[in-house]
Design goal:
alpha/beta, TIM Barrel, Glutaredoxin, 2 domains, 7-stranded parallel sheet, binds iron/sulfur cluster
């Protein structure tokens, strides 16, 4: 598979007329100011000089703001700078992110004419109550309308969701997931809400009127959402905020389920549960305490082992097994787990992700039967 490259261009939220409860336009965003024409050209040229692939796999991504909410002249200026690179094939496409209430037919025609191929919508929730309590300034109806317009225009649709917003809960997050799936997005991002310094949410938190999700609850909800999207073949391109310099600066995060490798923790939980299901099946059938080996794609080894070997420690202790190892099994695709017994190197059982999701739909939250996971706190 050909490698895909993003040239990220950060458009700060400067001058945004909204006040979403969780957003501090300065803390979370870069404070370098709006990129000038020269900045943009330098960024593009610097990236192109290091990327060794054909232009079709290179995408220029305007991140960080509501692109279609900034002044139209500035949008035109940025897009026209990229145009020659698209024309000569050095760049294949443009991606932007924006708010659902800043999409209509005319805006989509404008973006299409400049080669925009992907729009990520900052949806955050499909619940009107949550959107209102979070100060987003649009409704679920606006989200549905914008998403359908984007799909009909032929532009790829990305949906960004947040969990743990004021008024939100696990059931509403699962409902947002269900609604997002009905829109058949091309990709999804999921962000747990963090209390960032100097935001209205910080004030609510200080007044004990807002309680952020614990890391373990955020992982559990994200895991359920992730599996729902996987079941419907919708790619989750990121879980958890990118731990950029601004976010990591001292005092930027006041509270909330932050972890620099949040998405990795969610996927580790999935591999733990998938491995659990296989070992349980083996134990039920053979009542043996032989040493076991979990077989996975080489890129899934660390997710199967878990942070500080926690998955293996848990599985060993739960199943009273002397030893459990993890090995690469070249014939496997990603997200597949196999189980070999004793000195065997071929799997006795194999469970791919789709089978796992289907089996667990009869018994969701398999691991919650065994309590919480203090090591995730
Ligand atoms: S998150 Fe809300 S307040 Fe922050 S920049 Fe985006 S629209 Fe504006």
């Amino acid at each position: 598979m050909k490698q895909h490259y993003n040239i990220p261009v950060f458009i700060p939220h400067l001058g945004c007329p909204f006040q979403c409860i969780f957003c501090n336009q300065n803390k979370i965003a870069s404070n370098q100011g709006i990129p000038t024409r020269a900045d943009l050209i330098t960024t593009i040229d610097e990236h192109l000089s290091t990327i060794r692939t054909s232009g079709d796999n290179i995408e220029l991504a305007f991140f960080g703001g509501s692109f279609t909410a900034i002044d139209r002249k500035l949008q035109e200026e940025y897009l026209s700078i990229v145009k020659p690179y698209l024309k000569n094939g050095q760049i294949g496409s443009i991606r932007i992110s924006t708010r659902p209430d800043y999409i209509d037919g005319e805006i989509l025609d404008f973006l299409t004419s400049y080669g925009v191929k992907t729009i990520e919508l900052g949806v955050q929730s499909f619940s009107d109550e949550v959107l209102k309590a979070s100060g987003r300034g649009y409704s679920c109806g606006d989200v549905l309308k914008a998403s359908r317009l984007i799909k009909n225009s032929g532009i790829k649709l990305g949906i960004q969701l947040m969990i743990g917003l004021p008024g939100d809960n696990h059931a509403l997050d699962m409902e947002s997931t269900r609604q997002a799936i009905t829109l058949v997005p091309d990709m999804v991002r999921i962000y747990p809400t963090l209390v960032i310094a100097e935001t209205p949410l910080e004030i609510l938190f200080e007044q004990n009127k807002y309680l952020p999700l614990s890391l373990s609850n955020a992982i559990t909800t994200c895991k359920e959402m992730f599996l729902q999207f996987q079941q419907h073949d919708i790619t989750v391109i990121r879980m958890g905020l990118h731990p950029g310099e601004e976010l990591l600066s001292p005092g930027a995060i006041i509270a909330g389920p932050f972890h620099p490798a949040f998405g990795e923790l969610v996927e580790q939980e999935v591999f733990k549960e998938q491995s659990y299901m296989l070992i349980r099946k083996y134990k039920e059938k053979f009542k043996s305490d032989s040493d076991l080996t979990l077989l996975v794609h080489e890129k899934d080894i660390s997710k199967t082992i878990g942070h500080q070997k926690n998955n293996l420690l848990y599985l060993k202790s739960h199943f009273q097994t002397r030893d459990i190892k993890v090995k690469a099994y070249p014939a496997y695709e990603r997200d597949t787990v196999g189980l070999a017994v004793g000195i065997e190197s071929e799997p006795l059982f194999t469970l791919n992700r789709k089978e796992f999701i289907n089996f667990r739909s009869g018994e969701p939250d398999l691991l919650s039967l065994d309590g919480n996971w203090p090591f995730l706190m």
